[in-house]
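Database export, one record per block. Field names are fixed; values are copied verbatim from the stored entry.
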Amino acid sequence: MAAKKVCIVGSGNFGCAMAKIIARNTARHADFETGVTMWMFEEMVEHKGIEKKLSEVFNETHENVKYLPGVELPSNIKAEPDLKRAVEAADIYVWVLP
């Protein structure tokens, strides 16, 4: 049986908290692909004095500096701002939307 791919749809503070738990578990269990995709609404944020896309900052730092600042998430989470690309190859979806 092929390993299952997980996608988290939502990246606010609760979405990131769920992503942290899920990513740690996918990394430990062979039934899942290690990498977890998290759909992140694309918005601009100021980070270290530079205005950048939130998804770019997240993929560089593994911190959601806008909605969960100060909390580092596992490196096997990748933010994807394109919803279609985020969900296209996933087997399991975790919806964390307001």
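Remark 1: The chain has a mean pLDDT of 96.
Remark 2: Strands lie at 4-9, 32-39, 44-47, 50-53, 77-80, 92-95.
End of record.
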